[in-house]
Design goal:
Blueprint lengths: L7 H24 L5 H17 L14 E4 L5 H11 L5 H5 L29 H20 L11 E6 H5 L2 H11 L5 E7 L2 E2 L2 E2 L8 H7 L3 E7 L3 H12 L6 E6 L22 H11 L10 H7 L2 H21 L1 H11 L7 H15 L5 H12 L6 E5 L3 H4 L18 E3 L4 H14 L3 E3 L5 H9 L23 H4 L17
Parallel strand pairs: 1-2, 2-3, 3-7, 6-7, 8-9, 8-10
Antiparallel strand pairs: 4-5
The chain binds thiamine diphosphate and magnesium ion.
Length: about 500
């Protein structure tokens, strides 16, 4: 049976989705490396989400109130690169043509790219959904802190694509379980339920009842959605966004490699080029007659999201201007945090705090020293958020200004993560990436190290200035807290610049 859509309206939508399919199979073929299956399988879902729902502005990927989109099944990176290119981000066709080549930003397994629309690194399966839970939590906390009657200046969603692999990885349990408890209603995930992973059909190694699993976490679950039916996808998203106090999982039945007539539905499309013959057959099957890397004008125009993006951001800016009139102090504070700037008198404050601590210095456990530091700095840094994985009293993470958050009131700054160290670390990375939050996970565990190695912050875990100093543990947020490099009281014996 042909994979062409039946109705005229759907044919138009299908043509838009086919642009993703064509770019993905051609780019992977040109690189002789990559993953065409997931982009081709999720193209219809992506088309509906990005064209009808995603609130973003391609001209300003750093707009604070943009929706976040996280491709947790990051091997399908050509899906994201296609979307960024088609909707008008600063990602040229040359970048697509040179997928996975040195010197290009289309590296594969998306790397964290601020200013491009790549929100987090998602090569490691499960990290994306866990980071996304952190982003949704950051949104909820910021909304609790900054929104006032009539002024929802923080009001965006976090959308996630994930696959079987993300759901098999244990971290998805930790993160999604907490997302339910914290009632992250603006988190919406699409499960690419294609029954395939690298080794073949998953029935031999993945038989969970995913619907029941997520319902048990307290999520809204929309089951059995045809991931190739735009109307069904739209209906599911409408149901998802009507829900305020539960995250939603939309389970989409899809065909991996959709449109490749001889290979679709099989693991052979997961992570290898389709080959010239199958690509030619897919072009026929999909009714896509255009040469590689050419998008017809009408399809390019329909995808172009720049005008809508400008309207989105302008609307928000107008709201924010009125907010600034009604709540000037909040607006100033919000703007500071959006810009990632320290409080104006931070340097003097920090020097005085360090001098006072040094003057008192005695012998104490490092966890006590950590609490002393938190108590000294936290009053000046409302963006400091953190918590503990059920060891609050042991590792002394709760400073005197800590206000616990709950599912019903997220305006505080302290998170009881429960016994979920791995998830906690990935959540905190998501919160830090979300911006306007500096998170302080305190996790001396092997799992935490794994997340740090795979996190987008892994290259900045050491002091940006000397790369060796003992401030490395704090450098996870050094760019934001110490934009000019880390400071020292001079008594610590570190290099002057550190
Ligand atoms: C933590 C982690 N383990 C293993 C891999 C290697 N890997 C990449 S994709 C994949 C299979 C994923 O299956 P699924 O999510 O169902 O993707 P699909 O084949 O449906 O595109 C594996 C094992 C990885 N990227 N990350
Ligand atoms: Mg799969």
């Amino acid at each position: 049976m042909s994979q062409q859509a039946k109705s005229a309206g759907e044919t138009a939508r299908r043509d838009l989705a086919n642009a993703i399919r064509a770019l993905s199979m051609d780019a992977v073929q040109a690189a002789n490396s990559g993953h065409p299956g997931a982009p081709m399988g999720m193209a219809d879902i992506a088309e509906v989400l990005w064209n009808d729902y995603l609130r973003h502005n391609p001209a300003n990927p750093d707009w604070a109130d943009r929706d976040r989109f996280v491709l947790s099944n990051g091997h399908g990176s050509m899906l994201l690169y296609s979307l960024l290119h088609l909707t008008g981000y600063d990602l040229s066709m040359d970048e697509i043509r040179n997928f996975r080549q040195m010197g290009y930003r289309t590296a594969g397994h998306p790397e964290y790219e601020p200013g491009l629309g790549v929100e987090t690194t998602t090569g490691p399966l499960g990290q994306g959904i866990a980071n996304a839970v952190g982003m949704a939590l950051a949104e909820k906390m910021l909304a609790g802190q900054f929104n006032r009657d009539g002024f929802d200046v923080v009001d965006h969603r976090t959308w996630v694509f994930l696959g079987d692999g993300c759901l098999m990885e244990g971290i998805s349990h930790e993160a999604c379980s907490l997302a339910g408890t914290l009632k992250l209603g603006k988190l919406i995930a699409f499960y690419d339920d294609n029954n395939i992973s690298i080794d073949g059909e998953v029935d031999g190694w993945f038989t969970d009842d995913t619907v029941a699993r997520f319902k048990a976490y307290g999520w809204q679950v929309i089951a059995d959605v045809d991931g190739h039916d735009s109307a069904a996808i739209k209906a599911a998203i409408d149901t998802a966004i009507a829900q305020d106090d539960r995250p939603t999982l939309i389970c989409c039945k899809t065909v991996i490699g959709f449109g490749a007539p001889n290979k679709q539905g099989t693991a052979s499309t997961h992570g290898a080029p389709l080959g010239p013959e199958e690509i030619a057959a897919a072009r026929t099957e999909l009714g896509w007659s255009h040469p590689p890397f050419e998008i017809p004008g009408n399809i390019a125009a329909a995808w172009d999201g720049r005008e809508r993006g400008a309207v989105n951001e302008t609307g928000w800016s107008e709201l924010f201007a009125k907010y600034a009139e009604a709540h000037p102090e909040l607006a100033t504070e919000f703007a500071r945090r959006m810009a990632g700037q320290l409080p104006e008198d931070w340097a003097e404050f920090a020097d005085a705090a360090i001098a006072a601590i040094d003057a008192e210095a005695g012998q104490m456990a490092t966890r006590k020293a950590s609490l002393v530091a938190l108590n000294a700095f936290a009053p000046k840094l409302p963006e400091l958020a953190g918590g503990s994985a059920d060891l609050t009293g042991s590792n002394l993470t709760k400073h005197s200004g800590s206000e616990p958050i709950t599912g019903d009131d997220a305006s505080g700054n302290y998170i009881y993560f429960g016994v979920r160290e791995f998830g906690m670390t990935a959540l905190c990375n998501g919160m830090a990436l979300h911006a306007i939050f500096s998170s302080t996970p305190t996790i001396p565990s092997a799992s935490a190290k794994t997340v740090r190695r795979t996190s987008p912050w892994s290259t900045s875990l050491r002091c940006a200035s000397c790369r060796t100093c003992a401030y490395g543990g704090q450098a996870i947020r050094s760019r934001r807290l110490w934009p000019g490099g880390m400071r020292s009281s001079g008594r610590t014996g570190r290099q002057a610049s550190c």
